Amino acid sequence: MKVIVTVKRVIDYNVKVRVKADGSDVDLNNVKMAMNPFCEIAVEEAIRLKESGVATEVIAVSVGPKACQEQLRTALALGADRAIQVESDEQLESLNVAKLLAKVIEQEQPGVVILGKQAIDTDNNQTGQMLSALTGMAQGTFASKIDIQGDKALVTREVDGGLQTIELAMPIIATTDLRLNEPRYASLPNIMKAKRKPLEVKTAEELGVSIKAHTKLLSVGAPAERKAGIKVADVAELVDKLKNEAKVI
Amino acid sequence: MSVYRHPYKEADFVVRHLLAFDDFCRDNTLDDLNSDFCQLILKEAEKFAAHYLVEQNRQGDQQPAQLIAGKVIETPGFSSSYRAFIEQGWPSLSASEQYGGQGLPNLLAVACNEIWQSANLSFSLCPLLGQGAITAIERHGSTALKQRFLQKLVSGEWTGTMNLTEASAGSDLAAIKTRAVPEDDHYKIFGQKIFITWGDHQMSDNIIHLVLARLPDAPPGVKGLSLFVVPKYLVDEQGEPGIENDLRCISLEHKLGIHASPTCVMSYGDENGAIGYIIGENNYGLHYMFSMMNHARQGVGVQGLGVSERAYQAALEYAGNRIQGTDRAGNSLRIIEFGDVRRMLMLLKSATEAMRALCYYAGLETDKKNAVADNTEQSSQCAARIDFLTPIVKGWCTELTQELVSLAMQIHGGAGYIEEAGVAQLVRDARILTIYEGTTGIQALDLVKRKTLLDDGAQAKLMFAEIEQTLAQLRESPGCDVMYHNLNTALADGRAALSWLQANPGESSCVAVYYLQMWGYLTGGWLMAKSQLIASTLLANESPDSDYLQAKLVTTQFYAEHFLVRTSTCLASIKAGGDTMMSLSEQQFFSHVN
């Protein structure tokens, strides 16, 4: 059984994000980029499925410009067997990404597809769900446990009230939550092996997907700066301010 | 204390642009290596360091290794970090593939070592000594020794130590008294060694000690020293650690810094003699040790770089957050806005960048030598360059480190003097660097006598000629006039210093340190000048990272204005010669109290 795991190149979580001067977008020019942390969890889970003998091959897929090959190499260094980059220079919406991935799935026929539940740049939390709709594969989102049992899978989901376990018919799509696993570090011998692992580049055209924009980014602004606090004389004043100024109670 | 972040753009600039690593790989058919791959490795090294080593640095300072019931117990947590370190394969980075190593260039080892040493100097010394033991056995050991010891040293399952110093044999190894008595197929070792870094611990299954000792019929002095492999546990027929050897750590030193690195007094042969195996031939021990000397000494220069970078990052964070004073409009100011704090931050930034350029440059020279056949002209040219650079890398970088960590503390003000701020540990840890692996004085003597006067200044003149080429490029480049002028003056100072020393060789030992310092500022300045030229070209070609490149232009110019100019005071002190410093009688030193 093949496992496809998706990887997104995003701004490194250590970097303090800046908005472009014209407010058109976040400034990504020459800032440190890294693999989306939820994707790291997805890669880890895919490798564990292979190590436990459930999966035979792990394929890492990324949609993005050439630079995202760096994150694919990282996935290969962590233990993925091969990688596919779907070349795209534009910032794609989730639906376009899902359509491209659906084509890759059609070609590769994986038993399990694992995605991060969201990427820390745009926080959309859409691609996994859309991909499920497009492929007709069952979905288990926000997974904190994935247990493959032959032709079915048990996925434990992190829902508001606690944990929900669902049974899905294979093949499945899972999206990862934080507690699914703790990602490993790439070992030096595996980084060396990653150099020789195949990395294939495809285009939207080759996949027969036409990219369509459905939304337009109008502006991006930095969060308002926090104002200095004030001292209140007593509890009564505090309650009054919470009620009438902050309007939170 | 701030978190440590690897200066990956700096490392990439030096590797990719200043050293043209991709060209080196292509020319030497290292097909699948390049700067991108180097970045991939460094990023993973940073992740490892951030997770395992950075926090433990503080813990190691506060909970040093302890000697309990004859065993050295390392700082809590170090053992699991070390286990992870070997599981991830980091000790094998530059070791040869024949023994399970990855065979990567020395430059990558240098760049990774910088990360380990920024993160946790004490921890990093343990695998570093293993690298030394690997080199000695691989280069000079018999096939049997290689088979028995190398694989597990390369994997890091076993660690290594270097045993040279004795109570009365420090810089002068001729005074070594440890004895080696032949018996069957091995030797019995008797004697006491001091200052043995990581001489005992519980992190690995075995510890392989390399010990300098004297055979019964050996000639006196340094020509009578042989090198022995003395394992903590004798290796059984399955290649596993077996019976305990007759050696132990009898005491740990209480040190100013690097607390987590146990500095052991080692006693060999208290009962019937510790079993050891000779490396190479009788009486060639010091010769073999010297073959590792360049590597070890450059390694200490890199330690200076690592600690300086960490100190710079700590100072930068503090300066950006600490609020003191107000401007005329009554707005509060962060201390990074004050001129004098800027001065100190720029000194830290520019010196650290120059040190990195020099350390990596010297590191790649080793790869260039390894890439050509031994005993060729190219090989001896490379060797001469490496020999010349080594005392500069070791002496200059580590002396400069003292100034830099002190500045980093100064930026912290009173808080820096308090241990909780964390910068005090860096000041204490850094202090050993000008002392071990040959003091600055020893480095300077090596540079002036063996590396300069012995070849009639030939290598020094080759360096001058290369600097001259860079000057020609600077002259043609707009915006590089300050660098041109100051490098030109510094080069003239260098030439004047060489002529003076050649005319007054008898005074060289008195002024050697000034000569070493002069070479440090000059070679650092030369590499900063090259960096300035590269950054200008990249900017002219509209390379995207203009923020970083413009900062590079400013930083190199600042180096020219504030460090390169120091060659002139070095020259003045050299020319003053040794007369004044040697003219007092010993009695006169006490004339103020007698």
In short:
Chain A is built from seven helices and eleven strands. With about 250 residues, chain A is an alpha/beta fold.
Structure, explained:
The complex is a heterodimer of chains A (249) and B (594). The N and C termini of chain A lie far apart (54 Å). In chain A, strands 9-8-7-10-6-1-4-5-11 form a nine-stranded mixed β-sheet, with helices on both faces. In chain A, strands 2-3 form a two-stranded antiparallel sheet. Chain A is of the alpha/beta class. Chain A has one domain: HUPs (Rossmann fold), CATH 3.40.50. The mean pLDDT of chain A is 95. Helix content of chain A is 28%, strand content 27%. Chain A contains seven helices and eleven strands. In chain A, a hairpin with a 2-residue loop joins strand 7 and strand 8. With 594 residues, chain B is α+β, with helices and mostly antiparallel strands. Chain B has a domain of 143 residues. Chain B is 58% helix and 13% strand. Chain B contains 20 helices and 14 strands. In chain B, helix 1 crosses helix 3 and helix 15 runs antiparallel to helix 16. Chains A and B meet through helix 2 and helix 5 of A and helix 3 of B.
Distance between the termini of chain A: 54 Å
Q: How many DSSP-defined strands of chain B?
A: 14
How many DSSP-defined strands of chain A?
A: 11
**Overall mean pLDDT score of chain A?**
95
Alpha-carbon distance between the two ends of chain B: 48 Å
Low-confidence residue ranges of chain B: none
- Total helices of chain A: the number is 7
Low-confidence stretches of chain A: none
For the record, what is the CATH homologous superfamily label of chain A?
Answer: HUPs
Helicity of chain A, as a percent range: 25-40%
Structural class estimated from helices and strands of chain B: alpha+beta
Order of helical and strand elements of chain A = EEEHEHEHEHEEEEHEHH
* CATH architecture descriptor text of chain A: 3-Layer(aba) Sandwich
